[in-house]
Amino acid sequence: MDINDTYKTINTSGNEVLFKDRNSKFFGYTFPIISEEDAKQILERLKKQHHSARHWCYAWQIGTENPRYRSNDDGEPSNSAGQPIYGQIQSFEVTNILIVVVRYFGGVKLGVGGLINAYRTAAQLALEASNIIEKTININYVIIFEYKDMNKVMRIIKENKLKINKQELELNCKIYISVRKKISDKIKDIFSPLYEIEIKRIEG
């Protein structure tokens, strides 16, 4: 079975984009995030930056295999802002991302259809102005062993080109590694039968 272990995201904030409709201005932004707290902090910052705007509508998605998302209309008619923005996250198949569209009201009501189009277009333009990259889904393990087994452990790490995140090399040693999902079971199976060497999956 071929495991899909890649996902698309952005590694830096995208350039500000502007969409105008009947004097209303819609500024679109994209940000890489890994937690809801990241999204809250970015929104607070944008509200200070655009303190005279009328609405700060957004959608975010976090996670790869069981992603969580949220969308917010921020006072616009129900589902006229947050959902169209989230629709673009789905359309571009990106995750670990926050999209915010800031609206300055231009004095003319756009109607629900006009709002949906404006927020969707601003989100689309913001994504098109972003650097979308592909990353691998990695599983994190900790390998626990005695110092005397160091050479054995390091040889396996080197042979399989594994990424070391952190090392604690004392009498009892711990090495934290990231393994691409599609080979994670294979790597675990290499370490598991080795006497006095323990491998455990860790979250995060």
Automatic annotation (TrEMBL):
InterPro entries: Impact, Impact_N, Impact_N_sf, Ribosomal_Su5_D2-typ_SF. SUPFAM superfamilies: Ribosomal protein S5 domain 2-like. It comes from the Bacteria. Residues 22-127 form the Impact N-terminal domain. GO terms for biological process: regulation of translational initiation. One of its GO terms (cellular component) is cytoplasm. Gene3D superfamilies: Impact, N-terminal domain. Pfam families: Impact_N. Belongs to the IMPACT family. This is YigZ family protein.
